[in-house]
Structures are given as structure tokens and as C-alpha cells.
Design goal:
103 residues, mainly alpha, MDM2, two-stranded antiparallel ribbon, 6 helices, 53% helix, globular, SWIB_domain
């Protein structure tokens, strides 16, 4: 089963190389995100992974609604000062800190 998943991922990457590159290319981070991540360069994918790890380690998901994240001060700094963020909003809010790729 794992081989089938790997083949699908490879096929998707071959079809959309620019989209995959936008996720994995290293970029220089703005100061507020640099302070959160602790690095000056990181890929968008790894930045999202760090944000998610912070949410899980600090138990920031709402216990009554797991689709909502209660932002602490660190997350408020990178999520436009929002008190609560839905999980579906997370990728878009992280993406705001990364430059739009050239077409």
C-alpha cells in the first residue's frame, strides 16, 4: 500500500513541479516569523510543520472543537493578532509570510 502512495505522490510532483517547489524552496523569513521558527531561512512546508508542532506541544486546540486553535502570544504574532484560528485557515495564514512565486 505504501508503494502506491509513493507512486501517486511522485506523479503529482511531476505534474505540478512549480507547486511542489513553492512548498520546499528555502526563503528568507520576515522578522516576526523568524523569531517564531528560530531560523532565517525555511521552506513553507517546514514552517507549517513547526507551527503545527507548537500547537500540539502547547495543547492549543480547543478541547470542545478540535477544528479551532486558541492562539497564544507567539501564534498571535504570526497570525495577524487573531485570538482563534480554524485549522482550515492555517496554511493560508502561514503562506502570507512567504513571497509569491514567479510564474
Amino acid at each position: 500500500m505504501v508503494i502506491g502512495q509513493q507512486a501517486r505522490k511522485a506523479a503529482a510532483a511531476a505534474e505540478c513541479p512549480k507547486k511542489v517547489a513553492a512548498l520546499i524552496d528555502l526563503v528568507n523569513l520576515p522578522s516576526n516569523l523568524r523569531g517564531f521558527v528560530g531560523q532565517s531561512q525555511i521552506s513553507r512546508l517546514h514552517c507549517f510543520i513547526r507551527v503545527w508542532a507548537h500547537i500540539k506541544s502547547d495543547n492549543l486546540q480547543d478541547p470542545n472543537n478540535k477544528n479551532v486553535v486558541n492562539c497564544d502570544e507567539k501564534l498571535k504574532a504570526i497570525f495577524l493578532g487573531k485570538e482563534k484560528v480554524e485549522l482550515a485557515e492555517l496554511p493560508g495564514l502561514v503562506k502570507l509570510h512567504f513571497p509569491k512565486g514567479l510564474k
